[in-house]
Amino acid sequence: MFGVDLHTHSLISDGTLSPEQLVQAAVDVKIHTLALTDHDTMDGLARAQMYAQDHDIQIISGVEISSQWSRENTKKSYGVHIIALNMQDDAPIRIMLEKQKKVRAERAQTICNLLEKCIDFDIYPDVIAKVDGHADRVTRTHIAKTLVEKNIVSRPQQAFDRFLKEGKKAFVKFDGVGLKETIEVIHASQGFAVLAHPTRYDLSATNIRYLIELFAGFGGDAVELPSHSEPLSTRQMVDRMIQQFGLGVSIGSDFHGDNMPWIKLGHTPKVNEGQRGIWESFR
Ligand code: AMP
Ligand code: MN
Ligand code: MN
Ligand code: MN
């Protein structure tokens, strides 16, 4: 436990704790610096900050942005998650998030339409009920849980493997903001841009390197360190790239509450000597 967790989700996206419950849980495990980083929304931030006023914890504004990048001279684009942290001026990023929310809402409907062709009924109403009618908060986690409840699959992972992941019948690419623009908008909001979980995109080592170099070239600030659950060799590879491209580091658990019970709030990887923690630059 280090007291810093800069990657967490609440039930405003695909976590299971309310923003208030998340802050309380963080206080309970002695986190002093917490970022709430829901998917493409900052709608839980005010609640977390309000609750934190009566507690000994600093809430960092955050959001996990569904972005995309491509290799030069190729058409194929790859999804990537960029975490925006510690914005001092929300206005630019909120404008961008409005577009992201539209993409997310429409994609939820498209995924459900594709699923209907596979399972012969429409789960969209049940999916929407899970997000209290906020279509722009639907993630594939919600859809996977609905498929479990309808006995189409036995576990959420099976929903991804059979229908929702890339290459499967109900996969829909998130056609979000490009990587360069994502970083520019974060900087216009005076925030920091963090490349989330670099080794979790099913990319080859060559493509991970390409992505990190691209991210650094666009002015990205820090790379999230791989979690303890990943092999040491993976961590060492990322450490080398961080050093080579002169990037800072961020640490976060990617806590999702009971949706991913194996991930514990505040369980973050150890920072190496010589690595520059992005939180040291927060005001
Ligand atoms: P979305 O932003 O709608 O694409 O949903 C992404 C979320 O779904 C991620 O943040 C994870 O929480 C979850 N997820 C993505 N891929 C998988 C997978 N292969 N297995 C389980 N959960 C996944
Ligand atoms: Mn998630
Ligand atoms: Mn992510
Ligand atoms: Mn996340």
Architecture overview:
It comes from Acinetobacter halotolerans. GO terms for molecular function: 5'-3' DNA exonuclease activity; 5'-3' RNA exonuclease activity. Residues 4-69 form the Polymerase/histidinol phosphatase N-terminal domain. This is PHP domain-containing protein. The chain is of the alpha/beta class and 283 residues long. The protein has two domains: 4-98 and 178-281, TIM Barrel (Alpha-Beta Barrel), CATH 3.20.20.140; 101-164, DNA polymerase, domain 1 (Orthogonal Bundle). 39% of the residues lie in helices and 13% in strands. It has nine helices and eight strands. The protein has helices spanning 19-28, 45-52, 91-119, 124-130, 140-149, 156-164, 179-188, 205-217, 232-244; strands spanning 4-5, 33-35, 58-60, 62-70, 77-85, 192-195, 222-224, 248-250. The strands form two sheets. Strands 4-5-6-7-8 form a five-stranded mixed β-sheet. Helix 1 (19-28) packs across helix 2 (45-52) and helix 5 packs across helix 6. The longest helix has 29 residues, at 91-119. The structure holds adenosine monophosphate (AMP) and manganese (II) ion (MN) (3 copies). Adenosine monophosphate is lined by residues 14, 39, 66, 139-141, 157, 160, 165, 174, 256.
Poorly predicted runs: none
Strand order of the largest sheet: 4-5-6-7-8
At CATH level 3, the topology of the largest domain is TIM Barrel
Strand count, sense and barrel status of the largest sheet are:
5 strands, mixed
Mean of all residue-level pLDDT scores: 97
Percent helix, as a range, is 25-40%
General form: globular
Counting DSSP E segments of at least 2 residues, the number of strands comes to 8
Distance between the termini: 22 Å
Q: What series of H and E elements makes up the topology?
A: EHEHEEEHHHHHEHEHE
Bound molecules: adenosine monophosphate, manganese (II) ion
Separate helix tally: 9
- CA gyration radius, whole angstroms: 18 Å
Number of domains: 2
Architecture of the largest domain, according to CATH?
Answer: Alpha-Beta Barrel
Strand content: 5-15%
Q: Kindly provide the name of the CATH class of the largest domain.
A: Alpha Beta
- Structural category is alpha/beta
